[in-house]
Structure formats: structure tokens, C-alpha cells
Design goal:
heterodimer; A: two-stranded antiparallel sheet; 2 strands; B: alpha+beta; four-stranded antiparallel sheet; two-stranded antiparallel sheet; 2 helices; about 25% helix
């Protein structure tokens, strides 16, 4: 049995414990302990029924914890040690877990950690490694999050918007540690698509697939960043693109547009073009207009201006930047690019250097420094 | 023994090869980045690398301003201030080894492919547990 199959069982096992009367926080802890035990023992001694094994071990851990708590307080045991036959788990159990773990009262980083543990079945150690924080810090973050949502009923409809945001945050974390978080986010989004028929869920999955299809072409030797225009499009994963496009078309046909569907539509138009010049920039600008209506986000305004620059020329792009707040992290980079296209190399070089100082990641900083050097070099000594 | 290697954006004595990075040739930028990556990789292989992080030049000074008041901030940093660009923690057997490694890092190529000769700050960690002296 491989690790991913084991992890897929985690939300269902939490669901069983909760149905037997365990509170979510204790059930989740018990299942995490059972999971760690399974990771240690299964390779040498695989169980015949993995799910039943997890339920049994987790339930025993839960009872031990309740016993310890009861004796500490001098109280009677409040749950039955041997449960009656388990009630048939509902399909919605896992969906409710998504809602609870990404509850709007939780700060985003806590919601991310809790979702990865309770729905994703990752260990605290794996999550900590992926986010480059000590394991004890991550453990604390998760218990604080659970205390915060303690007492919230598991049977209330939740906020799908925050669930989608959490999954997209996980997706954008990419790959560090031994867990591929982008792939994990896709797995969790696939699972969610099976549980919810909201078109935005399909929109988010389509967006992830379309971005993921370009992943290998996005970085060059030594981890250097390769911008869209210079990517080797023959390396794009056409199978993922086809799946993303099909999923997006089905979602759009439902006629309930949302921000993820609009973003996926833009990603699909890029995926569809063999070169940047063959890209349907006019249609991309239209999708940015839709996206702007949906979100009003200044980042969308910035990206729209770059698309306008491609559709109607760099001067039009620079004019479209007029109503974008200049303190956005990528403002200087976008302005530099448009100035270079407009032929103002002097200004472009200055702006690329400024953009490198405003960069928020090492690959972006290095890329923008290289761009500054490249444009300055075009100017001659 | 652990040492902190500090690299400065500003505030260190001027390096020998002092041309700003955005005025190098693009391939010189690549060569520099490659050298830095190779350096960190080599230290991981020798078991001397502990941690490292690059810092954005953005940020501000912050201090407490009394009960019930929000902290005071002073920033972004003025051009003249000492400004740290990044740090690396190494765990090596001696001060001499720390100095040797800092020297290697400072030899990273810059404009014209020549070493930058950049000044790096090397600082020993205070240890967590006291030395037994009795």
C-alpha cells in the first residue's frame, strides 16, 4: 500500500470517529497519531483492511486520551469504549471537513495547515517541512486553529469561497520539502469537484491543471524563471491542458461565472496559442474585464494593462496602467516591460532595476536583475 | 562552531569590483548566481551549511510607543543606512575555516567576470549551553 492511498483514507476515518461521538479536535489528533503509526508499521506489516485498521487504532488512541482526561478530572468516561455498528458515512462528511478546516474565522496559514492535515492526510512534520517552519511551530498553529473552531457544528453549510482560496494558496506554494503541494492541491480540488457541483470548484481545478501543465517549462537551469513568452511550449503537458479546457467548458456552460473560471479562461487562451504573437490577446483583455468586474482587484488591473499592451500596443498598455496603484509588487516590472516594448530602453533598464528591489521572491529578483542587465547592455556602454 | 555570514546591500566598506549588478552583462549575472548556488551546494555536501536567507531591501524600523498606542515605524530605509541583503549560517570546526569560506563567497564573480572582493561580516554565535569550567 502506498502513502497516497493511506492519506486518502484520513478524512473518512476522521468522519467515522466524529460519527461515533468524538469531537473534531480529538478525532483529528487521534487519526494523526494512527497515521504516523501506519507510516511506521505498514511497510513491514500491511493490514488486510487498511481503513478498518486506521479506525481501530485511531479509536483506541481517542479512548486513551478521553480516559486520561477523565481520570485527571475525576469524572466518568463520557463515551462508550466499544462503539455499536458504525452508521453509514455520508458523502458529505468530507465536504464538511473542507468547510470546517477552511472556516472563515481562521487565518489563511492556519486554514492551510489544518486542511493539509485533516483532509490531505499529511503529517505535521511534512507540512512543517513544506512551509519551512519548525515542526513544533506547525503543531502549535494546528492546535490553535482547532481551538478556534472548537464547538462549531460539523453539519452546517460552510463558505465555499474560503475553501477554494485555501486550496489555491496550497497550489501556489509549489514544491518544497518532500511533498509536492501543487499536486496535493490538485488532488484535493479533484476530490472537492466530486463532492460539490458549484461551477467555481471546477473552475479552480481547471485553472490549476492549466497552470500545472506549464510547470516544467516555467523554470530553466539552476531554477531560473522563464517568462511565458520564452517558454518552450512543446514541453507543455497537452493531456493536462485538454482536461483543464474540457472541465472549464463544462463549468462555463452552467452560466454562473466566477473569478476562478475567468482566470482559467485566460490560462486556457494562453495554452491554446503556439506563440505569444498567435495568442488571442483581445479575448484575454475581455476576460480581464470580466475578472475586474468580479473582483475589483488592483492585481487584475495590473495584469489587464499588460494584456492591453499586447493587444493594442505598449502605449495603450502604459495608459491602462494609469489607474493601477504603483505600490503593487509587480508594478515596476510591468512598467519596465511596456517601456522596453515601446522602445524606451533607458527608462526600462531603470525600472527593471527598481523592480528587482521590489521583488518578493529570489527567482523573481534574479530574473529582474538579469532583465535590467540585458536592457542596459542593449543600450551599449 | 556556528558562524553568521552577513552580506550587506549598503553599509559595508566598498568592495574592489564595485559596479552595481544591473550594469553587468547578462551572462555575468548568470555566472554570479551560479557561483552562489554552487557555494551553498558545496557547503551542504561538506555538512557545514545550516541555513540561509535572502532579504528584500524593503522594510522599516519599528519600536514600542507606549501603552494602548500602535508601534512607531520609521521607513522605508534611507539611502545611507546599513542594510543587510542576506545571511548564511555555517557550522564549521574553526574560526579559520569560517574566514576561509567567507573569503570564497566574497570571490563571487561580478562585472567583467572578475571577483567582487565584497566585504562580508562574519560573526560567531554565542552557544546555548555554558562551558563546564569546574
Amino acid at each position: 500500500m502506498n502513502e497516497s492511498l493511506l492519506r486518502e483514507l484520513v478524512p473518512a476515518v476522521i468522519g467515522v470517529l466524529v460519527r461515533r461521538g468524538a469531537d473534531f479536535a480529538s478525532a483529528e489528533d487521534a487519526v494523526q497519531e494512527a497515521l504516523i503509526r501506519a507510516l511506521e508499521t505498514w511497510p513491514n506489516d500491511p493490514p488486510r483492511d487498511p481503513k478498518a485498521w486506521l479506525v481501530t487504532v485511531a479509536w483506541r488512541r481517542f479512548i486513551d486520551a478521553v480516559r486520561a482526561e477523565a481520570s485527571r478530572r475525576g469524572r466518568e468516561l463520557a463515551v462508550e469504549v466499544e462503539p455499536h455498528a458504525d452508521p453509514e458515512p455520508a458523502r458529505d462528511d468530507t465536504l464538511r471537513l473542507y468547510f470546517l478546516c477552511a472556516h472563515p474565522t481562521l487565518p489563511p496559514d492556519s486554514a492551510v495547515a489544518l486542511t493539509l492535515r485533516a483532509v490531505g492526510g499529511l503529517t505535521t512534520r511534512q507540512i512543517a517541512a513544506a512551509y519551512l517552519v519548525p515542526e513544533s511551530t506547525m503543531a502549535q498553529r494546528i492546535s490553535r486553529a482547532k481551538r478556534r473552531i472548537a464547538g462549531l457544528p460539523l453539519n452546517q453549510p460552510g463558505d465555499l469561497g474560503t475553501v477554494l482560496r485555501v486550496l489555491y494558496l496550497v497550489f501556489n506554494e509549489g514544491y518544497s520539502g518532500d511533498v509536492d503541494l501543487a499536486a496535493e492541491a490538485i488532488r484535493l480540488a479533484r476530490l472537492l469537484v466530486a463532492l460539490s457541483d458549484e461551477p467555481e470548484v471546477a473552475g479552480l481545478l481547471a485553472l490549476m491543471l492549466l497552470h500545472h501543465a506549464r510547470r516544467t517549462s516555467r523554470t530553466g537551469p539552476g531554477g531560473r524563471l522563464v517568462p511565458l513568452g520564452q517558454q518552450d511550449r512543446s514541453r507543455w503537458d497537452t493531456r493536462l491542458i485538454a482536461e483543464g479546457v474540457t472541465m472549464l467548458q463544462a463549468a462555463l456552460a452552467r452560466d454562473r461565472l466566477g473569478e476562478y473560471q475567468a482566470q482559467a479562461a485566460i490560462a486556457a487562451l494562453h495554452a491554446d496559442a503556439r506563440t505569444t504573437t498567435e495568442t488571442d490577446w483581445a479575448q484575454i483583455v475581455e476576460w480581464y474585464d470580466e475578472l475586474l468586474l468580479l473582483t475589483g482587484s488592483p492585481v487584475v488591473r495590473l495584469n489587464r494593462a499588460v494584456a492591453v499592451g499586447e493587444a493594442d500596443g505598449p502605449r495603450a498598455g502604459l495608459a491602462a496602467l494609469a489607474d493601477v496603484p504603483p505600490d503593487l509588487p509587480r508594478y515596476a516590472a510591468a512598467t519596465a516591460y511596456l517601456h522596453e516594448r515601446a522602445g524606451d530602453l533607458e527608462r526600462a533598464a531603470e525600472l527593471y532595476a527598481e523592480a528587482s528591489r521590489a521583488a518578493t521572491s529570489v527567482p523573481e529578483r534574479d530574473h529582474l536583475t538579469r532583465e535590467a542587465a540585458r536592457v542596459r547592455h542593449l543600450l551599449g556602454p | 562552531m556556528k558562524y553568521l555570514l552577513l552580506k550587506h546591500y549598503r553599509g559595508a566598506p566598498a568592495s574592489v569590483n564595485d559596479v552595481p549588478m544591473d550594469q553587468w552583462a547578462p551572462e555575468e549575472v548568470d555566472a554570479h548566481l551560479q557561483y552562489m548556488r554552487d557555494f551553498a551546494d558545496r557547503l551542504e555536501e561538506t555538512g557545514e551549511f545550516v541555513d540561509g536567507q535572502a532579504l528584500s531591501p524593503k522594510g522599516a524600523w519599528v519600536r514600542y510607543d507606549g501603552e494602548g498606542r500602535p508601534p512607531v515605524t520609521d521607513g522605508p530605509f534611507a539611502e545611507t543606512k546599513d542594510l543587510i541583503a542576506g545571511w548564511m549560517v555555517i557550522d564549521v570546526e574553526s574560526w579559520d575555516r569560517a574566514v576561509q569560506l567567507a573569503g570564497e563567497l566574497s570571490a563571487a564573480p561580478g562585472a567583467g567576470g572578475k571577483p567582487i572582493h565584497e566585504w562580508l561580516e562574519v560573526r560567531p554565535f554565542l552557544t546555548e549551553s555554558p562551558t563546564v569550567t569546574e
